[in-house]
Amino acid sequence: IGKQRKPDPRGRPGYLRLDTVHQGDGLEGKGVYHINAVDEVTQGQIAGATPRISEAYLEPLLKAMMQQFPFRIRGFHPDNGSGSSTAPSPNCSTSFSSSRPKAAPGSRAITA
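-> structure tokens emitted (112 positions)
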């Protein structure tokens, strides 16, 4: 069960907020999911997109997004939207948490 807390960066960059937005479905089929990672301190952001919300799609996308930040990723927390969480890159030490008062079904705590 995930802890319901917002990270406390104490002025240090490297704590990311992950937001997901579904583009919506169109005539061509299912729409993509836009993932936005925003650093809590610098407000720097990296955006990506994926056709599905699953570990197989999210893990490589999140790894690629995290590698683009110019600092060590210390932790991140999801928006508890329709997305699910996935394990972080082995190159970063993270603690998954949620800043919303109610956990989404299937949310979990991940520490590395």
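Helices lie at 55-67.
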